[in-house]
Every structure is written in C-alpha cells, then in structure tokens.
Design a protein that fits this description.
With 227 residues, the chain is mainly beta. It has helices at 43-46, 65-74, 89-92, 103-106, 127-131, 223-226; strands at 6-18, 24-32, 35-41, 50-57, 79-86, 100-101, 112-118, 121-125, 170-173, 176-188, 193-197, 207-212. A hairpin with a 4-residue loop joins strand 10 and strand 11 (193-197).
C-alpha cells in the first residue's frame, strides 16, 4: 500500500519542455491542487490514519444533504473530488482540517511519483484491440472472414468447457490504472501546474491522484529541495 503524501489533480494534456542542453522532454501537464484538508482518520477512532482531501469547488445545488453536512463540519466549501489518502500517524498530525496544500509543499522537482487515474472507456472491442492479438494469420485453403478472430477457445472433450480467463472480446478500458516511477520535471506553483515526464492514465480533464513512488528510495520529498 502506498503511504506517501500526495495530491489530487486534473490532467490537462501533453507538451514538451527543453533542458539547458537542448534536450526535449515529453511531459504531461497536470493542474495540481490546491487541495483542501477536509478531515482526518485517526488510530484511536478509526483504527487507521489517513487524510481526506478535496479538489475543485462544487456548486451548492449539486450537493446532497449528507455531503453538505460533511463539508459544513469541515468548515470548507463543497468539493467536486474527494479522496482519502492513507498516511502514517505522524504525517497526518502535521496537517490541520481546512488547510490548503500546494504542490511545492508535498513534492520536489526530480522526485519519482505514482499517478493513478481512470482510463478512457473504449466500449466493446475485439481481441486484436483488447489483447493485441495478431489475427488468424491465414488467407488460404478456403478460410474467409477470419482475419481478426481470436482462434480456438475450447479444449476438446476434456474438460469439455471453456477454461476461465481465456482472452476474448469484451468491454475494454474505464478502469483504475496506476503508472509507477514517473519523474517530476517541473513544479509551477504560480500556475498551479505539475509537469511529469511521460504519460499518465485517463483522458483530458480526467482526475488523477499523484503520490510519492512506492518502489523508489527517494519517494518522499528530497530534503535538499524541501529546504
């Protein structure tokens, strides 16, 4: 489980930035924060520790009564996206309900992060698009209308049925995906932007969660950059 600090953001698109030596980096632009601390989970009350973060304001008319009560208790305006991030108890204790977090307070340039988002929904697709099949591969001996099929799925008399997890056509996309070990290229607090090398899951204007990388030693904010 990832227990590193993180923020909620919105994917804006892709572009490129240039280093001093002229190297071009392809980056994804994320509108990161500012995120508001809506609440806390504590070991004494909830048996685990976490921060509840909110991102982007939501119109009052779209808020139901339970949500309105929660936001009123936190003393903040209603938020469109709410996420709960598991964190160590000592880290949770550093934040107060109602506080606003910026990217530079959580991340540093050069840090590795994991980005989670909901991928594009692609509907019902065939095996070539869904599983990258090569196709039947034959055009002779009387075969026809079979170039994009998946081939045999059975196993003869024994066991006389289709085994589980056989790759077939079906619904593709629209699932939560996490891309790990992406490097932060630039933090732009004034524009509320975060530039991350490579691609992140989801369509434009899709919401993502950015957290310190769980498989990297420098997942936390580097001390040199923090100072």
């Amino acid at each position: 489980m990832n227990t590193h600090p993180g923020l909620i953001g919105k994917k804006l698109g892709n572009t490129q930035v240039f280093l001093e030596d002229g190297t071009a980096l392809r980056v994804t632009v994320i509108k990161i924060g500012p995120c508001t601390v809506l609440g806390k989970r504590t070991l004494e009350k909830d048996k685990y520790s976490a921060l509840i973060l909110g991102f982007e304001d939501k119109r009052e008319k779209l808020v139901n009564k339970p949500e309105a009560g929660f936001f009123a208790k936190s003393g903040v305006s209603p938020k469109k996206v709410v996420r709960e991030l598991r964190l160590p108890e000592d880290v949770v204790g550093q934040y107060e309900v109602g506080a606003t977090l910026k990217a530079s307070e959580v991340f540093a340039e050069g840090q590795f992060v994991d980005v989670s988002g909901q991928t594009k929904g692609r509907g019902f697709t065939g095996v070539m698009k869904r599983w990258n099949f090569a196709g039947a591969g034959t055009v002779g001996h009387g075969t026809h209308e079979y170039k994009r099929h998946g081939g045999s799925i059975g196993s003869n008399m024994t066991p006389g049925r289709v085994l589980p997890n056989v790759k077939m056509a079906g619904q593709y996309g629209d699932e939560k995906v996490t891309i790990q070990n992406l490097k932060i290229a630039r933090i732009m607090d004034d524009e509320e932007l975060l530039l991350i090398e490579g691609g992140v899951p989801g369509p434009r204007n899709g919401y993502v969660t950015v957290r310190g990388a769980v498989k990297k030693k420098n997942a936390g904010k580097p001390q040199a950059a923090a100072n």
